[in-house]
Amino acid sequence: MAEFRNYKNDQSILKTMLRRKKESDLSTEPTKNQLSRVLGLVDLISLGVGSTLGLGAYVLAGEVAFKFTGPAVVLSFAFAAVASALSGLCYAEFASRVPKAGSAYAFSYVGIGEIVAFLIGWDLILEYSIGCASIARALSGHIDKPLGYPMRNYFQQTFPMDIDFLAPYPDLFSFASILMLTLLIAWGMRESSLLNKIFTIVNLLTVSTVVITGLFKIDFYNWNIPKEKIPLDAKGHGGEGGFLPFGWSGVFVGAATCFYGFVGFDAIATTGEEAKRPTRDIPLAIVISLSIITLSYCSVAIILTLMWPYYYQDPEAPFPHIYQQMEWHALEWIVTIGAVFALCTNMIGTLFPLPRILYSMASDGLLFHIFSKVDSKTKTPFWGTFICGAFAAILSSLFDLQQLMNMMSIGTLMAYSLVCICVLILRYTNDDSEECKIRDNGRFRVSLMRLLSSSFNLPKSQITTKNTGRTSIIIIMVYLIVSICFCSSISIVQNEGKFNTVTCAACIFFGVCLLVLCYSLSRQPQSTNRPTFHVPCVPFVPCLSVVLNIYLMTQLDTSTWIRFTVWLFIGVLIYLFYGLRYSVERLNQRRIVDETYMKQIRYEIQVY
Q1: Cis peptide, bond prior to residue 71, ω within 30 of zero
Q2: 166 half-sphere exposure, CB direction, 13 A CA radius
Q3: Could you tell me which residues are beta bridge partners of residue 219?
Q4: What is the residue-wise DSSP string for 528-541?
Q5: Do the beta carbons of residue 261 and residue 298 sit within 8 Å?
Q6: Cβ(542)–Cβ(423) below 8 Å
Q7: Measured between alpha carbons, how far is 293 from 57 in angstroms, rounded to an integer?
Q8: What is the pLDDT of residues 514-563, one digit of tens each?
Q9: Cα separation of 350 and 129, whole Å?
Q10: Mean of the per-residue pLDDT values for the chain?
């Protein structure tokens, strides 16, 4: 109870939690930090490409073509690339505004508030942990398969685990591989960055080899196979034949799956305190990385479906399967080795941001202090890196991660959506000029005419004030709610599979509302405080990104939402019993209040 009594000067604890923001990080000037600034533009690009380009090229293209899209898998990758690019632009603007470690956590702390920032940071911890663990399991299986599964057979016979929610056997290889990379990253950023660049180059060379060699075996007939020509043993996976055998619905379902292949580029945004020129290099690295990744995925998807009929693809290892059928055994081993390097770079990319996010949260007092300690020799958060690696290694060795894979996407999509919302909020509320203060009367009266006038900015005000800021925030929040309703309605229509007057009318109604709200927001005055890189066509680009991200989130199953809610609940308990008490921003506010109070007391003593 003593902690709650300390909040007498605040209007309420809840109000403080929601409104308390990290004001100090709004400056784009370089600040002193304990981490070593050794990452240049090439390092950041290799980190982004290495974190993202992996399973999507070697597994995902074949799986989506076989199950959902057929040859139209290239369209699914294109749609997923658009959704990722829109979010990437918002990430780039926020990274240039906030050159700090912590990714979406730091962005949310500045744009929305402390409690939301903590939940996003807590969410990203789970996302990257599961991502690293699942990639380690895939690496183990990719090495084990060409050799005839000796590791799987030995561990399954020697250490069987007959528990439903655990793996059939402990994967000690994945456990050891994560610990080795953990020690490498903890050893020093310069050394791990060099290895990551080498792995990324090998990865890109492998993709180039696949595309170039595949050009000699392409057959455009594989994109136009009529239904009657589909073999009987492939009828269950042939659909209607042609380029769109499963229709446009299959393309959009495939896009939701292909989006997983773009998860990871946001790792660049966590390097704000280790990049040499964060305000310039981080936005540029995000844009270049996404361009390279999109070109690689689309090229691989085109070659894959032109070389071999989509209904005969191997969902687990498409290219080794095709090379086996064509008796290209040398290429089979080259691609297998390249895939191993790709998975290693993916592991580095997913493990690298974890200690940085923990470091940022612990430095702000929201997590335990041990995570903010930086080793004096390596200039890295050693203990944070080691604890994160151990946690991911335990997950990879003991748990069956097949059902947990969706947890990666739900966390990423939520982080992307919040970053876009943060960009909108800062664009329409972050103006502290003297002219703004003079013209703002501080009152926000509500009436029908004033509501219409303020919603569409009929006076054509060009300067942001408190009133225009409040109006913009209200429009953004309503837009978010309507987006959820719109995407849910579309999902219901898709699941029903037939025309329904009510749901279709709901889709049209909510769609029109989104257009009106977006137009209303576009008429509001924007802040004159612009970062080095800023998103074009605001508010249309962030608003479209929010809708696409929410739509992809509605494609996830109920069990994923339940597990995600449980994890967030644990995080809320940590925040209430630790973070709320030791928050650096809260202590700074308390100190300022105490100093003001003491000055007033001294003044009154002098007067009397």
Answers
A1: no
A2: 13
A3: none
A4: S---SS--SSTTHH
A5: no
A6: yes
A7: 9
A8: 999 999 999 888 887 777 677 888 899 999 999 998 988 887 777 778 87
A9: 7
A10: 78
